[in-house]
Amino acid sequence: MATDTALDHDIEVQSGDAWDGGKKPFKASYGKLMMWYFLLSDAFTFSGFLIAYGALRISSPTWPVPDFVFQTFPGGITGWPLIFVTVMSFLLIVSSVTMVRAVQEGARENRKGVVFWMILTIIGGLGFLGCQAWEWTNLIGHEHMSVTTNPFGTHVESGVYLEDANGDAYAAGATKETFEAGESYLIHKHNGDWVQREYQVTSGTDEGTRMNQEFGPKAFGALFFFITGFHGFHVFSGVVFLIIIMLNAASGVYVERKNGYEMVEKIGLYWHFVDLVWVFVFLVFYLL
Amino acid sequence: MTFLVVKGLVVWNEVMADVGIDEEVIEIEATGYQFAWDIRYPGPDNRLGEKDYTLIQLGINPLGQNWEDPQNHDDFIADQIYLPVGRKVRVRITAKDVLHNFYLPHFRVKMDAVPGLPSYFVFTPTVTTEDFRARLRDNANWQGLSDPEDPESLQKWEAFDYELACAELCGKGHYSMRKIVKIVSEDEYNAWLEQQNSYYMSQIRNTDNDPLKGQFLESDIKVNEKKFFEEFDNAMSSADTDDIVLPLRNINFETGSANLTNNSQYELNNLVTALTKYKDVSIELNGHTDNVGDSGVNQQLSESRASTVLNYLIDRGVSSSRLSSRGYGDRMPLETNDTEEGRMKNKRIEFKIFKKQTI
Amino acid sequence: MAEVLEYNEDVLIKEQGYDDHFHDHHHGDKFRSGFISHYIFSMDHKIIAKQFLITGMIWAIIGAAMSIVFRMQLGFPEDSMTWIKPLLGKWIVVENGIGTLAPEFYYALVTMHGTILVFFVLTAGLSGTFSNLLIPLQLGARDMASPFMNMLSYWFFFMAGIVMFYSLFISTGPFAGGWTAYPPLSALPQASQGSGAGMTLWLVSLTLFVVSVLLGGINYITTVLNLRTKGMSLWRMPLTIWAFFVTAILGLLSFPVLVSGFLMLMCDRGLGTSFFLSEIFVNGEALPNVGGSPILYQHLFWFLGHPEVYIIILPAMGLVSEVLSVHARKPIFGYKAMVYSILAIGFLSFIVWAHHMFMSGVNPMISNFFVVFTLIIAVPSAVKVFNWITTLYGGNIRLNTPMLFAIGFVSMFISGGLTGIFLGNSAIDIQMHDTYFVVAHFHIVMGVAAFFGMFAGIYHWFPKMYGRFMNETLGKIHFWFTIVGAYAIFWPMHYIGMAGVPRRYYSFDSFDAFNDFALMNKFITIAAIIVFAVQILFVINFFYSIWYGKKMKTKNPWGATTLEWTTDIKPGHGNWEGNLPTVHRWAYDYGKDGHDFIPQYVPAQEGEKDVH
Amino acid sequence: MAHENHEKAIKQVYIGLGILAVITLIEVGVSLFGKGHIIDGVESNTWVIYIAALLIIGLSLYKAKFIIYEFMHMRYEVPGLIRSVLLPVLLLVWAIIAFFLEGDYWKEKRNKVKVRNEMPAEKLVPQGMLDYEWSKEDLQ
């Protein structure tokens, strides 16, 4: 714990209200308090993003279904909805736990323990960043989603495809692919051109009309990259700070400090906050 | 204070309430852009047609109207806002580029025009421009020449007009987005409406910008039908007992062949209907061509075209005993074959009603 | 480089808790070595306060001068402005021998005037100055919780200023889309010249500014919570501290939301995203953006924007409460009510933002809630006004310059507040929205009023800052011209606004409905020029007095109870020689038990009643 | 810190890891269930989706609280600090409601134009169409 240094006049034994002056009513050092308030303000930034996300999502007539969008796994495996991102979440949770352990070791003034657990945390953070990099690469490179284009569309009516996946007419006798309202599709690219497959509506007021697959709401791609990117940026800067503080701890700077390993505690707060934000990013982008 | 809040909210909700779906209302559309307003009226159908901003072409399709939507065909763009007094007006407010604000200072009307998010404002004008000028006539502030430089200009109160302005900063020309608003009596309004030409009909129809170029509109079909039956009925009811030749105006063939174009079906169906109505009439279908090309070929073409029409009629259930066909080639031109116009008129299908001959 | 090393050491010492450091070194403060570390990269909150104040004053002069330029165009459109061409260059368009301001530049000036005054002057200059000066001094603290971050806060503000200043000189001009920077205008370089590089710099500048506000705000909050001297309970804090505290909280919570809006705007500008853009056809080209909503930005902006007006006015309220009480020689009336009303205003400011947007096509249904919430703010505001007036009632009033300005503040706040009640009503707002009525309202209630609070504060605490007094005669001239002038400027504006004349109009020529007020516009412009000239007088007085003002003879010239007057006349870094004072009573024991005033450090006397 | 305390604290951390892991798994499960991956066809009932969403939101809030209280040691801070950090978050509640209502209104506004456009027209024929003389009444 931080040393409870008070102001330099003599402190009498005080029995009054915790809010009286001359002592730290919050029993926390100013550094930790400032970190808390910084996190509070950062939470408002993220809230701004997430609330804007909510408003834009509500205002769109359709929205891509996340378990369709996020169903790939490294190694070309598809059809595993949400599994990869669950792995990412685990990584972050585990790194949070190792961070707690580092703080605990810090409280015991155990230099080696701090360094060991912090290295594990850094590895966890880097792992998370790596996973995110893969996810982005897959979405951008493979599925051609970008901040301006969202190839993930949603059917609003049931129907039957008139073309196969390559955009060619079905061969005679082939079974045509059908779909139901609410189903998602991904518009592929062939030789640099988008293939928006043609289909015939088989239900509702538009029954019988021919339509082409349409791109999904643009805001989806932009919001996804923007918010996960902003979170990723927090993870990245967190990793950088972790490395700095880990090196400091290893070199023994904190051994001599009066407040000991408080820096570890502060970066711990930050790191948990990153995890906390992920809980909500995970919630709104992947689960709902 | 409580009064202020409660009353304020009541008024607010009254003012902002949208019209009911069946309520009678004049709906016009105001589109703000840098730096002016375009006012679109719905035309006789009282429905504004569909818009799509990607269809906008400066000078050709300023609002991006989708011409395939028939509701657009009668819409017109007015240079002033004309509205009848005492009628509820719903203004659909849109913007092309940046935010604007549809502001009628005299009417206490104000609403942002947001690109991509159409808004609306509902209001009822209560005083005509003329009445308002009359009110100003005795007001000392409104005396004097409206243009001090010009001794012949109107008095200030005579020159008064309601105005439309922009009240949301939209760029360097923000201060100049003026349009005049005229509130008139119902009769004047209707008279004004009569004078307006549909933008589509006057500017777009059958130009290269018209996606429906060469196709009949539903209204065309109705007009043609009416015209056809008028002629047919006249022919039948006239006391004249000579055979009467009537043109089949809107029948066309693909160039050099006897295949009917899609547009021809309407006139042919009219003919079928007429023949069903007058059961005892028999007709002869006559084909004509212009003199371009070999006359033998022309003769053949005219014959086969006439018989194509004949077959069409038979397919539709007209008894073959009432029909005959004949080709005249290029022998009977209506007008000179020297001009393109004349040649177009000479290529035609007519039908002859045998008035004496009844079945 | 020696200095830099010292700073590092200093930071490390801070990490360990600096109290011992002061215990060892407060005699002769070893960090006061060089000029640079003392006056430029100072970590002393008092120096930082002066830095904020003087930077704010420079910005105020620039911003006000801009308003004079565009007011001249508005008031005297037919008169040539060619004489200013050497300064403004191509922005003066000469046609038929008559030079007029280019419309783009007119809008750029309006925009910059708003941005500079709202952010750089009234946020940084007012709360930055006095929070820094008074929080540690009135709480009995050596310095801020983190002097280093405090220094950074100023330098981020300074950099924000540099970037903004630079944007004034680029060839396409500064941003010209209004200080609120609504997209799509702010997002589309095609739509307006100023939306190109000017807007980019504007965004960069304000982002730096937000960093500054956050660094400062975190510091103020932590200091107020954690560094109060012994006996300084929350309920003994002067109202100034309460005001700064709530202000800092507002800034801490609302500016991040603005940042989120800014970042999205940057993406829309640079990366082709469609957060705020939808179905736009501009400059002959249909943009591919669909699905965004410009109104989303407005929500994000005003989620900051409304707390922002309280960030501006609350510090002024705090300063005025203190000045009124000191110079009326009476305890502030209803201290707790004042505190609760500050807190209530702070809370309510977060749930009323959309009253700026009644006419921008938001859901009329939620407007109802916003109307109700907005008008509830009238209650705590009225409580404050009532308490100020009651404080004055029967007081032994000293009508010196700070007191005059404090009273002027109350007057301005009442006038501006009343018009706010009208504007808060959505139904009335249909006519008033974006007219000169709004301009008059917010200038009076948060522009002029906040300036009056600031002037009251400067005249009152100038002796604390520089050990000298400001010239009283000049001060009174300053006051009377300013209050009469301010009313002369803004009173007619209400009238014009009620007639429906929209704001941000370069010229009213094209509209018959708005063109009738040429005379009034001339009058307003002349009044504005006079008021501006008088402010120059204030600046002269300020700098003159720094070096040649009447010297302060005693520690406590005003006879105030608060702790800042217990330090040396020119306190060093660390504020108090020896131990920190201990507080035994609240800050408003004036005229009690036959004493003119009882300072906070005086212990409860025998038989004394009601020791708060 | 005493040795047993330390051991206990370490144990608690790993229990925390377990709790978070299990909750995350449940969340993913509920989410997939709501989308019809586990039992086909349930997603056609709207109430299933709503209940699943509420469950997930509830679990996420619990996770958040757990992280703040255990990992970030909020549980061990004084009540004043807890209040000063967590109460301001409540300011967002109205923001969330208002923004979402707004989002819904944007959709409604775009929709309204479609609805109005699709209302049956009052009169069919535009004026000034052909040279032919006709009156509007004729052609209704």
Architecture overview:
The complex is a heterotetramer of chains A (288), B (359), C (612) and D (140). Chain B has helices spanning 2-16, 129-136, 186-195, 199-204, 218-237, 265-277, 295-315, 340-346; strands at residues 26-33, 36-41, 76-78, 81-84, 89-95, 100-104, 109-113, 119-123, 162-166, 179-184, 244-248, 281-288, 323-327, 348-358. By secondary structure, chain B is an alpha+beta fold. Chain B folds into 2 domains: 2-204, Cupredoxins -  blue copper proteins (Immunoglobulin-like); 218-358, OmpA-like domain (60s Ribosomal Protein L30, Chain: A). A 5-stranded mixed beta sheet of chain B has the order 3-2-1-5-8, with no helix packed on it. In chain B, helix 5 packs parallel to helix 6 (265-277). With 612 residues, chain C is mainly alpha-helical. Helices cover 62% and strands 3% of the residues of chain C. In chain C, the strands form 3 sheets. Chain C has a two-stranded antiparallel sheet. In chain C, a hairpin with a 2-residue loop joins strand 5 (590-592) and strand 6. Chain D has helices at residues 3-34, 46-71, 79-86, 91-117. In chain D, helix 1 (3-34) runs antiparallel to helix 2. Chain D is elongated. Classes of the chains: A alpha+beta (288), B alpha+beta (359), C mainly alpha (612), D mainly alpha (140). Chains in contact: A-C, A-D, B-C, B-D, C-D. At the B-C interface, helix 1, strand 7 and strand 9 of B face helix 6, strand 3, helix 12 and helix 15 of C.
CATH architecture of the largest domain in chain C: Up-down Bundle
- Widest beta sheet: strand line-up of chain C: 1-2
Query: What is the first-to-last residue Cα distance of chain D?
Result: 93 Å
Number of helices of chain D: 4
**What is the percent of helical residues of chain C?**
55-70%
Element-by-element helix/strand order of chain D: HHHH
Rounded mean pLDDT score of chain C? 88
Distance between the termini of chain C: 50 Å
Rg from Cα of chain D: 29 Å
Number of strands of chain C: 6
Global mean pLDDT of chain D: 79
Quick structural overview:
Chain B is α+β, with helices and mostly antiparallel strands and 359 residues long. Chain B contains eight helices and 14 strands. Chain B folds into two domains: 2-204, Cupredoxins -  blue copper proteins (Immunoglobulin-like, Sandwich), CATH 2.60.40.420; 218-358, OmpA-like domain (60s Ribosomal Protein L30, Chain: A).
Helix and strand arrangement:
The complex is a heterotetramer of chains A (about 290), B (about 350), C (about 600) and D (about 140).
Chain A: H1 30-59, H2 66-69, H3 83-107, H4 111-142, E1 152-154, E2 159-161, E3 178-179, E4 184-186, E5 188-190, E6 193-195, E7 198-201, E8 210-212, H5 218-251, H6 253-256, H7 262-287
Antiparallel strand pairs in A: 1-4, 2-3, 2-7, 5-6, 7-8
Helix pairs in contact in A: 1-5, 1-7, 3-4, 3-7, 4-5, 5-7
Chain C: H1 2-15, H2 19-25, H3 35-40, H4 45-75, H5 85-88, E1 92-95, E2 98-101, H6 103-139, H7 147-167, H8 197-226, H9 239-270, E3 281-282, E4 285-286, H10 294-328, H11 335-348, H12 364-376, H13 378-392, H14 401-424, H15 426-432, H16 436-466, H17 472-498, H18 518-548, E5 590-592, E6 595-597
Antiparallel strand pairs in C: 1-2, 3-4, 5-6
Helix pairs in contact in C: 4-6, 4-7, 4-18, 6-7, 6-8, 6-9, 6-10, 6-16, 7-8, 8-9, 9-10, 9-11, 10-14, 10-16, 11-13, 13-14, 14-16, 14-17, 16-17, 17-18
Chain D: H1 3-34, H2 46-71, H3 79-86, H4 91-117
